[in-house]
Structure formats: structure tokens, C-alpha cells
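[scheduler] slot 2 assigned
[scheduler] job type: sequence-to-structure, two independent chains
[scheduler] chain ordering preserved from manifest
[runner] begin chain α
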Amino acid sequence: MRNKLVGSFLSLILAIFIIATNTLFAQQGTYNKKNLEKEKKEKLAKIRQNDLILKEISQKKVNNLSKLHVVREQMNVQKKFIQTLKEQIADIDENLNKKQKILQELQAELKALKKEYASMIYALAKTHSAYKKMLYLFSSESFNQLYKRLLYLAQYQEARKRQVQGIQKLSQEIEAERKEQEKMRAEKQALLNEKLGITQSLKNLEESNSLLVKQLSAEELKLKAEIDKDKKALAQLDQAISQMVQRELVPIPSSDSQKDKETNIEIPSPTQLTPKKGNFVKGKLLFPVRKGFVAIPFGKYEHPVLQGVTIESNGIEIQTQPNEPVYAVADGKVTAIAKIPGMVGQVIMIQHGSFFSVYAKVHNIRVGIGQYVKGGQCLAYVVIDEQGDSKLQLQLWHQHEKLNPEVWLAPR
């Protein structure tokens, strides 16, 4: 009888351990699920944002190259979204396998507990009638032995109660596990359906990409002419920025604005008070627009259509929506507002100590030269070019060195 009592106690301990392990596993699974769900929401927001940009471009006679940029960015985001869905499905499969093993352990333990309980009841029926209990007690050789036998009977009765409670708790845990698995299977099916839909959307985008490349290939002369035009405008912008940076870094004692003889661009006179670097920190600068993506990267890159044609960019160009607000990437002082010949819109330069941020292709400017601005403050709005396209050009400089904005901007 005493061996049965010990065995019953050990079974209860094992059952509690299985339940505790399952609880810990469930907490870890919830953490992974939350992270993947967060990634999914972020990518889905980008897909919807790009859809709006693509819709805006499609409604206007925007050049095919801009459409190609949007289509390829959307393809890239959708591929990442599909990968996130795959990770979510794999996570559910892994959790289902673990939960199935736990369920089998719980069922085996419940079976063992019920068997032990049945044996206990059978033994109790055989040996613990009222008469036999009295005989068992009064056959004690001493009062001390009588007391111990009374305690033993009480403990045995308590063990029976714990056994019943253990069986009930295990039964509830098994039922909860079954419901949780049903819920996870339903979530998996929803993800599979979502993956099927986005895969079809990606296929449609790949077809659009092929069609746009074919159309652009037939416009080679026009594309080369646009590249030459952009190079000239960017060269003038580069020259103007260099001169403005030089004037701010090497102050000239003058209170009047001057015009550059070659570009005829008005360059404000430098001030004696130089703004501090402040929150201009690598990897933490604010993205200059709320909606959009980097369509043209920093540095040298291969033309997306013309073979053997390499283009060099001194900054990044962000594809966005028409009249999208443009915000300062960090605290600083507006040191120049200029118009570059051959380039649509205007240019704003902000100084951040020995760093400078330049925002090109903007209009409806909301700040003035000499004004101090906070990071995230609206400076202007993205202009719509003659083809209906809207791209913000962002350049970052450290003295006379051009910086890669994507490295300095905070991750989105």
C-alpha cells in the first residue's frame, strides 16, 4: 500500500512537470509569433504604400523607367513578405510537432494516473472496510503506533484526493492542447491562402517588369538623352553644393548674398554662428518622407535597362507620391535655398555642424535661410516633374565628402 502511495505521488510530480514545460514552451512560441507578426505587418504596410505609388503613377503619363522602379521595389517587398509567411508557416509546423509530443505525453500520463487510481480504489475496497480499519488500528502494539496508523490513513485519503485533482487537471490540459492545435491549424491555412494570393500578385508584377523592360529597350535613344540631361543638372547641383559647403566652412566677413559666376545661383553669406552637430548620428537620421522607397541608390550602379551603362549618384532618390511632405533628417540650420538650371523644383541645404543635408526636387518651401529647424520638421513638398513623376533627391555631406544616406538613415 505504501509503494502505491509513493508511486501515485511521483506520477503527480511528473504530470505537473509536463504541464509546466508546456507553459514555458507556449511562452517562447508566443514570443516568436509576435516577432514574425510584427515583420509581416511592416512588410504589408510597405506593399500597400507601394500600391498607392504605383496606382498614382499608372494614372498619369509617367515615364516607364519610374514605373519599372516601383514595380521592382514592389517585387522585392513581396518576395520578402512571402519569405515571412513561409517562416510563420514553418514556426506553426514546429510548434504543432512539439505540442503533439506534449499531448501524447499528457495522454500517456493521464492513462497511468487513471490506472494507478483504479488500483488504489481496488486496494482500498479490499482492505479498508470499516471493520478492517478498526482491526488495523486496534491491533497496534502501542499508542505511538496507533497514532502513526491514523496519520497514514489520513495521508492515504489525501493522496486519493490529489490523484483525482491530478486527473482532472490533466484532462483539462489535454482539452486545451487540442483546441490550441485546432486554432494553429486554422492560422496555418489562412497563411497558406495569403501566400497563394501574394504569389499570384508577384507573378503579375514579374510580367509587368518584363513588359516594361521590353518597352524601355525600344526607347534607348530617349533614355540616353535623359541620362545626359540629368548628368548636366546633377553636375551643376554638385558644384553648387561644394561652393555652399566651402562658404559655410570658411566664413567670409560679408553680410550680402552673392551669386556664383558660373551657375548664377544665389549663395547666402555665411554666418559667424555655426550650428552644432546635434542629433546628426550615423544610422539614426530620420527618413525625409513618410511614404516612399529608395529607387536610385548612392554611388555607381548599372542602368536597369541599358546594358553597359553605368550611372553615378551622389545621393539617393526616393520614389514617393506627388506633394509628399519633406522633413529634416536632424536638427540644423537652413543655409541655402537654390534653383538649379535643368533640375525641376528647388534645393534646400541644412547645416548640422560639419555635416550637411541637401534636399532637391522640392517646392512650396516652408523654411527660410538662417532658420533653425528640428529633426522631423516639414521643410517643403516633393515637386511633380513634367512627366508627372515625384522623386526626392537626398544628399549628405561631411565637409566636402559625399556620404551614403542609406547608411546614415535609421532603419525603417
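[runner] end chain α
[runner] begin chain β
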Amino acid sequence: MRPTFRNIDARDCGAGRRLVRRWVAAVATCLFLGGFAPAAAQDEPAADSAALGEVPIFSRGDLSYRPGRGLRHESLGLVLGGFTNLKLESTDESGEELTLDLLNFFLIFDYFERLRGVADLQLKDVVAWDRDRSGVHDFAFDVRRLFADLTVSDEVRVRVGTFLTPIGYWNLILAPPLTWTTEAPLIAEETFFEQTTTGAMVHGTVGALGGRVGYAVFGHFLDPLESDPDLKPADHAGGLRLTYDRGPSWSVGASFQSAETDNVWSHLGAVHGVWQQGRFASQVEAYVEDIHLEGVQWGGYLQGVVEVVEPFSLVARYEHLAPPSNQNSVHTFTFGGVYRPLPFMALKAEYRFGDRGLTGEDLDGFFFSFTTFF
């Protein structure tokens, strides 16, 4: 069974008072967060924060530890690191819930100049507290990434194993400390394709037209390492991703994938763009998928970020989902703020609301998180 849109339940969207309350909550969130921004920015000089991730706070022989960059053994070429994500959400239907949402461990082996190995082991929903349960342990263990990467040159690299599927932009962001919101866009939550591919990929970059052109050709032809009942990858899949980067200011890209599951084919196309200038940044991404006998589904989002005062930023995002067949489209809005006391750490708060809900998931609510590399 390939990933598709979940059934959508219509809500009473005609009530003007409820819509007004949603917008008031969104504006109040931004004003509340913005009110704390100047004081928070003065707590510690930016130079000190940046230096903390660069200078080892522990060093003995070949061992050294840099916060946010992990523990490294120089002579063995081994790095042990990871990240964690603590999440608090409050929704009308589910109430309040606090979870240790993610706990990931990285093991990186780069002893050889041209060969690198990466293992990314993930614990999800490690422990949760809500109004009905306290300290419930119901976590899942995943081998998120496990691959070897051989560098032939900057233009040609070969990767074999389990790796992030190179489609779009959001799916290739490694961890929550690198994102601007607690909640990912709906189209990025395994709606159109599996987040990881088990197989092989040839990728690289080449200078062209005053920038860098990147490519990735990949194929899925191996079974996942773990047996996860929630994970049903395609029997066979292959695709291509092309990007053009013009320095740090902007980047655009396009992706395509064909996949076959139980003799049913689907074809997916995606485009993305990223722009940054001074204190302003924006990000856009869209997917469209044609599923045999089911029709076309598509979706996208537009996200904007403005740095109010370092290291505090405001973020806003609009999303649109259009499922196949006769299901109604979904529109959502997210407004929030991000405080980054250190380059590898983030505190996020946001309010999200939509005109419809997804079965089993309440879109409307407040979401908070603390996330950091270690």
C-alpha cells in the first residue's frame, strides 16, 4: 500500500466566530513571542554562542567533544552524536500532551579519505504524558539511515544502503534543529512517498552558469532493514533530482520518481525553491502525484521567515492539500516564532489552524518544542 492522503472530515467552517478566534490566537502567538525577543537577544553575545559549537569543551588525547557536533575520536575517524526533540502540543480534541518525540544517535565513520559510513538510529515517542496517561512508554525504533558513501570526485559519489529519499527540500533536512517549525508541512509527513530509500544512489555537483548544479539518480530495490508494520515501501522505485544553487542567496530544484507497489504504478513530480536575503528568507515546495486508478493528488506550501532581532525570528506558513477522487481540499495556516540561543539549538512555538481536519489528527492547536544537537 503506497502512501496516500488520509480521509478528510469536513468541519463546520461557516462559523465566523471560530475563524476569528483562530486568527486572534495566531496573532496573539506572534505578539507574545515578539515581546520577549529583545530581552532574549541580550542575554549572551552572539559571538560566544557561535564559538561554543566550534571549540571543544572536552579534550583528552584523540577524544574531543564539541556541543552540537558530537564526540570525536580523531585517530579512528569516528564521531558519535545525535539530536533530541521535546514536544508539547495543545489541541481542542486531544488536549495537552508532552512527549519526548525523537531521540536520534549518529555514528559517522570517516577514517578513509574517500569512504564515509553513516548510521542514524532513531527512537520515536520515547515517553509521553497527557491528561489520561502519565509517563507511557510506547516508542518505536527505526534505522533511519545506514549507508556507505564513496567519493570518486566532486562530480561523482556513490551511496549504497538506506538513505533519505532525495525528493523535494524538506525531506532532506536532517533534524528538527534545522527547521523553523515544530510541525512539518503535511505534504512532508509521508503523504506522497516514503521518507527513506533502501538501494543505491549516484550523486554529485558541478560548476555551471555561475553557480552549482547538483544531481541525484536513485533506485529502491532492497528490503528495509527493520520490519515496521507502518512502513510499506514500494516494491521498486527510481527517480532523479536536479538542483541549481546560486550561493547562499537562492536555490531551486525539481524531482521525479516512479514507483511500483503490488503491480500499481505511481508517478510523482516535485519542485522547490529557497531564497534568503539579509534578515528575510522564504521557502516553497509543491508535489503532484498520479496514481493508477485513483487519480491525481497534489499539495504545496509557502513559508516565510523574518529575523526580528538576533537570535529570534518569526515564521508563517500557508499549506494546501488536494487529495485524489472527490475528497475536499485542505488549507492550513501556521504562525509562530523561533529562538536559537545557540547555532545547534532551537526553542519553537506556533499556532496552526485549518479549514478542515484529517481523520485521526486534529490540525488546530498550539505546538511547542525544544530541540538540539548534542
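[runner] end chain β
[qc] chain β: The helical segments are 16-41, 46-52.
[scheduler] slot 2 released
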